[in-house]
Design a protein that fits this description.
Radius of gyration of chain A: 13 Å
Strand content of chain B: over 45%
Order of helices and strands of chain B: EEEEEEEEEEE
Oligomer: heterodimer
Largest sheet of chain A: 7 strands, mixed
Largest sheet of chain B: 6 strands, mixed
Number of helices of chain A: 0
Low-confidence stretches of chain A: none
Mean pLDDT of chain B: 90
Shape of chain B: globular
Structural class of chain A: mainly beta
Largest interface: A-B, 29 and 27 residues
Number of helices of chain B: 0
Shape of chain A: globular
Radius of gyration of chain B: 14 Å
Low-confidence stretches of chain B: none
Chain lengths: ~120, ~110
């Protein structure tokens, strides 16, 4: 158990809809990262937040947005959903924005999103 | 633009033998190099890392090698155990204000008893 929790575990929704994925980082971790893993693909970095502020952006679509709240939990909002958005969405957390020698991130179990 | 390649999507190794997983990358700006492993229905788990100033880092049965001139990263597992069967991702980061990580597509390792 990494200490990172994600809800829901599974989500099935229709095209055009909007969903919110939630992540609670490990206790004490200030950084939260979101990743997308499509079928047979590697992990695609979407976005990073550090202590409530956006710190880095990756391949995140304009239809997607995220935020980190004062209690450090984070939400990833996906809107105008398309079939191609079906994927596993992982959240990860780390102690600081960067730790110098290793960027050890702790991953949650993921949310499987199916868009029909 | 594929910055990272793991040319072997799968690898089978006999228990007790060495497993060698490889990654090639193109971005010379990467500063940190990591390996994660992932079991089905779980998130990736950090395994081992190496900074750009080193060429080798060892942790028990796991050794990571970095060849910066060849832009090549490898993971050696010796001896391999059936519990090592998982998908292994190499990951790369830059020493910037914002951490923008790049993960490889993964190699599925099967260690046969």
């Amino acid at each position: 158990d990494s200490g990172v929790t994600q809800t829901p575990k599974h989500l099935i929704t229709a095209t055009g809809q909007r969903v919110t994925l939630r992540c609670s980082p490990r206790s004490g971790d200030l950084s939260v990262y979101w990743y997308q893993q499509s079928l047979d693909q590697g992990l695609q970095f979407l976005i990073q937040y550090y202590n409530g502020e956006e710190r880095a952006k990756g391949n995140i679509l304009e239809r997607f947005s995220a935020q980190q709240f004062p209690d450090l939990h984070s939400e990833l909002n996906l809107s105008s959903l398309e079939l191609g958005d079906s994927a596993l969405y992982f959240c990860a957390s780390s102690v600081e924005a960067w730790t110098g020698n290793a960027y050890e991130q702790y991953f949650g179990p993921g949310t499987r999103l199916t868009v029909t | 633009d594929q910055q990272v390649k793991q040319n072997s999507p799968s690898l089978s190794v006999q228990e007790g033998r060495i497993s060698i997983l490889n990654c090639d990358y193109t971005n010379s700006m990467f500063d940190y190099f990591l390996w994660y492993k992932k079991y089905p229905a779980e998130g990736p788990t950090f395994l081992i890392s190496i900074s750009s100033i080193k060429d080798k880092n060892e942790d028990g049965r796991f050794t990571v090698f970095l060849n910066k001139s060849a832009k090549h990263l490898s993971l050696h597992i010796v001896p391999s155990q059936p519990g090592d069967s998982a998908v292994y991702f190499c990951a790369f980061g830059t020493d910037n204000y914002g951490q923008n990580f790049v993960f490889g597509p993964g190699t599925r390792l099967s260690v046969l008893p």
